[in-house]
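Researcher: Let's try something more involved. This one mixes different molecule types, so please make sure each is placed in the same coordinate frame as the others.
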Amino acid sequence: MDIVPQLIVNSLIAGSLYALVAMGFNLVFGATRFFNLAHGVLAAVGGYTAFYLGSTLGAPVWVAVIGAVAAAALVGYGFERLIFRPLRARRASNLVLLVASLGAFTAVEALIAMLFTSQFRTLAMLTGATHIIHFGSGVMTSVQAIILGSSVVVLIALRLVLTKTSFGRAVRAVSDDEEVAKIVGIDTNSIIGAVFIIGSAVAGLAGVFAGMDTGIEPRMGFLILLKGVIAAIIGGIGSVYGGFLGAFLLGFAENFGIWQISGEWKDAIAFTVLILFLLFRPQGILGKKRI
Amino acid sequence: MNSKKRTFAAVLALIVLAGAVWWGTARTAPQSSGVIKIGFIGPLTGDAAPIGESTRNAVVSAIDEVNASSTQKYEVIYEDGRCDGPTSASAAQKLINIDKVKFIIGGICSGETLGAAPVAEAAHIILLSPVSSSPDITKAGDYIFRTFASDATSGQKVAEAIWSRGYRSIAVISEQTDYAQALKDIFEARFKELGGTIVTSEGYETTSKDFRSQLTKAKAANPDALYLVPNTSASGQILLSQVKDMGITTPLFSNELVTTPSLLTSGVSNGVIFAEVNFDKNSPAAAAFLDAYTKRFGTMDPSSPPIYGASTYDSVHLLTDLITTYGSNPDTVKGALYAVKDRPGAAGQLTIDRNGDAVREYVLKQVVNGQIVPVTQ
Amino acid sequence: MEYIIHLAILVSIYAILAISLQLLVGYTGLLSVTHAAFYGIGAYVVALLLTNTGIGFFGALALGILGSALAALLIGLVLSKFRDDYYALGSLGFNVIVFSVLLNWQGLTRGPLGIPGISRPELFGFVFSDNAFFLLLALLLLAIVYAFGRLITQSSFGRTLEAIREDEEALSVFGYRTSGFKLLIFVLSAGMAAVAGALFASYITFIDPSSFNIPESIFMLSIIILGGLGTLRGAVLGALVLVLLPEALRFVGFSTDIAAQMRQLIYGLLLVLLMLYRPQGLVGKFKL
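Model: All components are placed in one shared frame. Result:
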């Protein structure tokens, strides 16, 4: 049996989840220029909201998904208003913002664990029975196909918004230079707020999908974040398109990397890829191109 | 802020903290006379928390029964070992030196037991683990006991079962944790000794949820059967559902984690053959325990194997029986523990050997339509 | 009393870690998230030597420092090319890689099984099996590390490091090879972390890789950020507060499963509030 088609499918499955995280992460980075580690916990917020709506309240799947995305967007916007905006106003350095986002991450993760316990849960009540789709000798489940499709849809939607609307032009202006954007009359704070809402919503969606594919637990955000950040950097930090490409590159590197060496080295492979990129191509696959 | 102020702030912070610790110490100091304190160490938080929770509840059930029937009263102090050695060592220090316990039930995770063991051994305190199965615990010390069998037995049993079914090549997928790796090593050693080949042995990190590429390699190696060694019910569930998703139809062998209710109801563990202590959920002793547990705490967490609770429950009864009979001197109780032979309990018959290890009979079982049925070797 | 001694030993170990990390983060401005890796390498070298060879604790300690410093040299060669947030992420990557090696190279480290039965230090036939004596040893090593840290910070080397923190560009314009200085302090700091690793391994007598992963590195960072960046005393103070805080929570009477999450919650909120209202920490001089 040829192993390659299945490895390609595995890489696509892994890449599509990383892509959803990396695109949101890069969108926020593009506008604010700092590593928002709290981005990861939004996936857990999304996953648990869907769990609460679907399991405890018995809501149908579309309500659960919309609720989860909204909750993640709300929490992400809350971070921006309560923590990051005051820090930016004070011209805090990137490291201060990074440490603060780490703190926000830790606190919210603990809060989720207190509310829902640390137990692993599935979102099977939302997905129902899945069926198997064949790609040659490779297989994936219907849920994974939906995730893959959604990552492409989100990419296209974000690209359209950023390139075709006046809001998108404002985001790009802020991204290029916040000071200049302010001078030409753009309300940078509300633009950045909107960017946080969109980016966080996508992270929430990633959390729901991760939960549907495997399951949710409070610390899921950290794992999702690490891979998402690697994808964001190797694709081209600050670029939505780059995050998308980087995610699939990472998916392929991980899954083909363990073809010859044993599977427990997956994380080490991912971080080796990151360090190689930082060393030899710190600007990522896309280079200096933005958005 | 000048340096005087800074020093002052530092000293102030020190005093406040020292005060907090002292206050805590003082608060727990008063001993209620006549009541014997027992410590408990288990993973009350973290990934293994469901197991910590159900074993703690099992302790509560057992202690309540003992206190209702015996003239000697007991009190248990619960500490979190977070499933790791250092935290557990810290918890053991606290139990022994602050609460002055002479007996500890725990740890639950093997890492906890190995972390707490040197502390208990040095203080001549009995440490009785109800669930830890690492082979290293066998030689952890004179005061260290367990009522769970070492992984050695389970791994060998499954290897022999696979061999006797005529399967000669095996692919192994195991989680990178102490329990799973010890089990995997013993299994592989025994299977090679029998003359079989391990065609591929893949690990996965405990944080990972995507095992498809490991499974792809295992499938491509075309083995006669697959041996899966997850460490938690969660990873077992993901692993087994990905096995099904990828259309792998080779016979599956695993460990007792496939008996957790969440796996049984989801159906993913159907067909899996595993080795387990001769534990019968429907035996009178086990049924009595599970009844008492359910009445008090509701259904046991579906990701915790019932055998863990039963073994913990037995450990509490064993320890309190011995203390009530022989008094609360750890050295006397230690002697009595080494003499335990064919003691009936919810988890089956228990004999303790000269290493302080439980000698338990292992049997093969299979999951069939969500039910656990015994199968022949 | 035993319990207080136990806590004092833990505080000493973390104080050593915090001092060594302080040199890197607080003085040189390099946000390293890989300190647990060097702590771990030190612990593993000492544990393996003590369980497999006849070499004594102090010999093992010396080799542990050496091993950790060598690993730091290799890693530092890569890292010293980065600055600011890229430095943080690159160093985080190395922590994961070192953790993976400790976990997966089972032939050497026994992987997740950990190394049990590590012996206590011995000097001229005297075994530090009593915790009170072990505490003396820990305090002695803490004092040496503190003195070494002071030596560095008050030397011209230390002033160069602070100049790198304030303005690396300007310094390189003046002809300083800043990456050489960054590498040197990284190696020294890793060697000091190995001292803490050695103490930890021989105190707990059982180690496994889980003690040396990213959350531990983040915990060390929280210690120095809370204590205050750019002061050695801040590092010690931070270690004192953050090591004792969870132990104090043990007594407050939260139900146990809530208590541990509560601790995480408090760490998280503490970091956010410090960044918002007091970015220089309790007694610090330098704001990130």
